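Reopening this ticket.

The earlier resolution said the output was attached, but the attachment link was broken on my side. Pasting everything inline this time so it's all in one place.
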Amino acid sequence: PQVHASTPQVFAALGAPEFHPAPEPAGSERFPPQPSGNELEAAALQANPALAAVRTQLHGFAPFQLSGSGAAWFHPCTDEEAASLLHQLHIAGYRAQLHRVLREPQEVQA
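Inline output:
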């Protein structure tokens, strides 16, 4: 959407101290089957209330989640669901894209 919140404003709304990123998980933990939520979402909605209206609209299609401090939204789904969802979102005027998660190659057992 054409609505966004600046990352510094979101962190200020969160009342967060200086940011220190967590270490990156290894292996399959990097891509969980379903996201576990976004701790910045409430602060992003506070920093830019227009994001709440976008969230309400998107939830009419599927349970989208805000990515980071906004304003990218995502919804993990199957390829079949993605095709239909993309079509619906494009008709509604959203710029939507399909991105597939690439898994790390599995070791070949000898």
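Reporter confirms the inline version is readable. The beta strands are 65-67, 72-74. The mean pLDDT is 79.
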